[in-house]
Each structure stands twice: as structure tokens, then as C-alpha cells.
Q: What sequence folds into this?
């Protein structure tokens, strides 16, 4: 069981954990990770519905185009089982992350203020400074890598769209540079509560991409279904597909940053329930329908299995827009870690 520095276990149900040790409440002891509360921070805190949208935008993206292909590798029945089991497991662990943050706010009220690195602070209280540093390193590497992938993917899609439809020839490197200039100002916003509108747009682009893909599959239904073939179940192929399922529901590295910006962190459980349910409703119908229609002939991305070229480009553009907008979410914990390390003051947009 996790414990604080005094050896007391972190658990709910403690009415006044500071009665025996008032020094636990001092702000100075924790100034390295948290800043004083302000009216601006209080006003920027999110409703649990907005937090749920954050979760959806964080998880959905590449998973939309990859999940049907995972069904091709695992088969219909195994794919459905994998998706449901992993969804429930990740939902539970996300729920627990929210509960841990609530416990920390009860035991150390300073965490009710804005905290730049909530996930490493959880690790510090549970297992010490070494765990905190390892957690910070893991988060920095993971989120920076994901941000680079999102930027490269969206730049590649936009590059081909400009060349094929608008006859504007800009190199991929040039497209990356222009996208970076456009996105950079939005990454200067302090925390999720300050750019919730960006996430709403990311959610809209995701839904539109799913609708376009399903419509494309529907148009191909008559021509493809009579010729469809399904590969026999192979345990090795199914195990390889599990990595895609795990990726499609990943995103926990951002969860503590989101719950830290909520108006009522105890309601994060509602955000988790509705967020994961929404992701499941986006993934499951698309994956089942696309695999049923295309079967073994499905391309590496379900978008390229759609025969209507206009729908391909439309879905790709929506995915590109989603990646650009989600990049703002994903890079935020990295920025806050770096700012904390260099003791950057909160000025301007920060």
C-alpha cells in the first residue's frame, strides 16, 4: 500500500489527516511543484463533461484507422473480446488515477492549486523521489514522441492534399515548418482548462472522420461483400493485434493533468465512464462493419480501403486536423515539466 513520508497509508475516509501533523499543510514544502492559487485558475477549471471530451480527443485518432485492421489480424470474435476487455481495464486504471489525485488533495491541500506535474507528484508520494524522476522521464519521452508522430502524420496528409487538389507544391519539410508555426502559439496556453475549445474541435473532427469512413464502407458494401474472404484465426497474429488495441485506448499519461484542472475532481469518474464509452462507440461499429465488408483485403489503414477517393481525402483531412489539435493536449504536460525545471514564471499566456 502506498504511503506518505510519515509512513501513513494513502486512503480515503480520513476526516482530518493534518490534525496530527500540521506541517503537512505548509505551502513552502511543496513550492517545487505547485504555485499559489489564483482567481484565474479557479475560473479556468473544467466541467466533467469537458474533461470527458478531453479523454476522447486524447485517446481517439490513429486508433480510428488502425482498429479495423486489428480486427483483420485477430478475427471478429477475438477482436470484440480484446476491445471490450482492454476498454474495461483501462477505464478502471483511469478511474484509479482520478481517485489517487483526490486522496492527495485531501491529505495535502496544496494540490488543490495548479500543479505543473501531477503524475510525477503521484509517483513521489507513493514511492519516493527516484520514482518521481523516472515517471517524469517516461512521460517526457512518450509524449514528445507522440507529438512528433502527430506532427509528421498531419503534415504528410496536408502535403498530399495541397499537391493533388490545390496544385500547391510545398515539400513535406516545408509543410512541417508551417504547421509548427501555426500550432506553436496554442502550446503556450497554461493548462487544459485554457484550451478546452481546441479539444471540442478535435472531438468534432474525430466524429466526422468516423462518419466519412462508415459512409465510404457503406458505398463499397454492394461490390465488396460478395467477394469478401476472412483469414483463419491464428494465435500469433491475434497477439500482434493486441498492441494496436492497447494503443487505441492509451492516454493515461495526460489523465492527471486533466483531473488537476477539473472544477470537481471527484467527478472524474463520470468523465472516465462517459469518455471510454464514447471511444468504444466510435471504435466498435466502425471496426465490425469495415472488417465485415472488406475482410482479408483491408489495407494497412481502413481509409485506403474505401474506394471513393473524395471520401478518402475527407477522412484523412479530418484525421490530420484531429492530430494537429490533439498535439496541443499531448505536448502540454511536457511543456509544464520543462517550465517547472527552469522555474519559468507564469506570464502572458502562461
A:
Amino acid at each position: 500500500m502506498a504511503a506518505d513520508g510519515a509512513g501513513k497509508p494513502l486512503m480515503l475516509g480520513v476526516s482530518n489527516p493534518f490534525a496530527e501533523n500540521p506541517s503537512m499543510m505548509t505551502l513552502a514544502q511543496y513550492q517545487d511543484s505547485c504555485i499559489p492559487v489564483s482567481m484565474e485558475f479557479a475560473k479556468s477549471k473544467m466541467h466533467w463533461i469537458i474533461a470527458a471530451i478531453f479523454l476522447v480527443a486524447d485517446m481517439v485518432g490513429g486508433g480510428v484507422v488502425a482498429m479495423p485492421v486489428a480486427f483483420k489480424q485477430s478475427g471478429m470474435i477475438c477482436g470484440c473480446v480484446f476491445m471490450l476487455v482492454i476498454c474495461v481495464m483501462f477505464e478502471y486504471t483511469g478511474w484509479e488515477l482520478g481517485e489517487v489525485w483526490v486522496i492527495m488533495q485531501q491529505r495535502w491541500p496544496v494540490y488543490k492549486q495548479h500543479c505543473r506535474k501531477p503524475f510525477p507528484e503521484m509517483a513521489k508520494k507513493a514511492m519516493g523521489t527516484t520514482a518521481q524522476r523516472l515517471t517524469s522521464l517516461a512521460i517526457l519521452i512518450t509524449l514528445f514522441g507522440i507529438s512528433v508522430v502527430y506532427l509528421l502524420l498531419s503534415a504528410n496528409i496536408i502535403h498530399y492534399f495541397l499537391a493533388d487538389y490545390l496544385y500547391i507544391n510545398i515539400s513535406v519539410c516545408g509543410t512541417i515548418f508551417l504547421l509548427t508555426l501555426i500550432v506553436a502559439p496554442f502550446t503556450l496556453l497554461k493548462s487544459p482548462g485554457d484550451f478546452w475549445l481546441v479539444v471540442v474541435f478535435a472531438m468534432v473532427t474525430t466524429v466526422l472522420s468516423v462518419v466519412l469512413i462508415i459512409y465510404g464502407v457503406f458505398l463499397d458494401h454492394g461490390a465488396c461483400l460478395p467477394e469478401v474472404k476472412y483469414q483463419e484465426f491464428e494465435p500469433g497474429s491475434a497477439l500482434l493485434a493486441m498492441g494496436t488495441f492497447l494503443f487505441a485506448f492509451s492516454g493515461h499519461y495526460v489523465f492527471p493533468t486533466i483531473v488537476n484542472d477539473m472544477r470537481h475532481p471527484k467527478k472524474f469518474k463520470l468523465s472516465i465512464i462517459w469518455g471510454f464509452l464514447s471511444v468504444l462507440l466510435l471504435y466498435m461499429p466502425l471496426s465490425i462493419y469495415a472488417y465485415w465488408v472488406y475482410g482479408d483485403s483491408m489495407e494497412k489503414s481502413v481509409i485506403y480501403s474505401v474506394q471513393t477517393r473524395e471520401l478518402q481525402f475527407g477522412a484523412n483531412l479530418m484525421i490530420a486536423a484531429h492530430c494537429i489539435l490533439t498535439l496541443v493536449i499531448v505536448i502540454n504536460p511536457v511543456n509544464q515539466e520543462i517550465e517547472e525545471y527552469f522555474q519559468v514564471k507564469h506570464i502572458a499566456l502562461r
Notes: The chain is about 65% helix and 0% strand.
